[in-house]
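Hi C.,

You asked whether I'd gotten around to modeling the 223-residue construct. I have! Everything is below, sequence then structure, no commentary in between.
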Amino acid sequence: MFYHTHMKTILLVEDDPILGETIIDILEDEGYTITWVKDGKGALQMCFEKSFSLYLFDINVPFINGLELLNDLRYSGDETPAIFITALVDLNSLEKGFQVGADDYIKKPFEMKELVVRIESQIKKRFNSYKNTLQYKDISYDIAANIVLKNGKKIHLSPSESKLLELFLQNIGKVLSKDEILYNLHNGDIGSDASLRVQVSKLNKIGLDISNIRAVGYRCEKP
């Protein structure tokens, strides 16, 4: 399931070696690829080097704590789903976590099964929009009806082009690797790079601003 793991990449920031190793063992068994960093400064650097499906941050870590780390990432426009894991149980920490942009929060000690369920929920939200209509400049896409409009006029797209449009519009500003794009378009089957280039070109022509990130993938730029 090589392609599947590209949808399931997690950055773990945890300075407790035993807990860190336990989380990695459990999540790798669930098919996730984990990058483990033990302090906030290293995590910030890693976030600029790679794209992740989800962040799993302990709050009390060295150099830059989890709250400051996520606040910096959100300020830079990073909207990757984030879950805090922490022993802090007071309401101020909980409130601050959501203020800086956390999507979920799990208190130590926790059941590993609960962590897996919460992670899967956030990953699903990222790759499956709950909105019925996605909007980008003068383009709107009604997912349920599978209708694409530009300036109110209907545009014909093939099923795979529509799926690609939906994927880009759900991940504006994020770099998507070719592997995760092809996985989504072909339900796990290996797709062709050449056909993907043609489909991206078609979407650019109708008005999306998609950049080719060399040797990595593509990014639909913010309007």
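If it helps when you're writing up: The longest helix spans residues 112-127.

Thanks,
B.
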